[in-house]
Amino acid sequence: MKGTIFALGALMLAGMAGTASAQTMSYAQAGALIAKSCGPSIERFCAKVNIGTGQVQQCLQQHQDQVPRQCFDDFAAVQTAIAKRVAAQAAAGQACSASAQQFCSGVKPGDANILDCLLDSVKVVRPACKQTLIDAGWAN
């Protein structure tokens, strides 16, 4: 059943967006957090809700007086962190263009070759590029 809750959390988050935050998280981390703080409430109140349609969040809202506040707080944090990750991924080309020209000029585009080059060079790329790669979830 925990696997079901984890999968549920991951599916709930797959298409969500929000505002930026201090850090990003992976879908796996997001699903684990939602499973931990919302899992019992999902099982109790929303077990028959279609998980792929966003209806679980609506179901939890309908039972908000019985769902722990931490569930809603974690859900908001997850939405924010995932949105920041998605935004960083979209911005990586622009944020890293100068670093790509400097460090990856001989790399043939395609098949993530330039991203691989940037990741190999992450210690020396420009700070904005490095932070974008980290926020995108591609570098540590």
Describe it.
With 140 residues, the protein is an all-alpha fold. 64% of the residues lie in helices and 0% in strands. The protein has seven helices and no strands. Helix 1 packs across helix 2, helix 2 packs antiparallel against helix 4 and helix 4 packs across helix 7 (127-135). The longest helix is centred in the middle third of the chain and has 27 residues, at 69-95. It is elongated, with a radius of gyration of 18 Å. The model is unreliable at 1-22 (pLDDT under 50).
Quick overview:
The protein has 140 residues and is mostly helical. It has seven helices and no strands.
Q: Given the C-alpha coordinates, what overall shape results?
A: elongated
Helix content: 55-70%
The low-pLDDT segments are: 1-22
Q: DSSP helix count?
A: 7
Q: Over all CA atoms, what is the radius of gyration? A: 18 Å
Task: Return the average pLDDT rounded to an integer.
Answer: 85
Largest sheet: none
Strand residue percentage: under 5%
Structural class: mainly alpha
**N-to-C terminal Cα separation, in Å?**
32 Å
Strand elements, count:
0
SSE string: HHHHHHH
Which terms would index this structure?
about 140 residues; elongated; mainly alpha; 7 helices; about 0% strand
Fold blueprint:
Blueprint: H1 2-13, H2 27-45, H3 55-62, H4 69-95, H5 97-103, H6 113-120, H7 127-135
Helix pairs in contact: 1-2, 2-4, 4-7
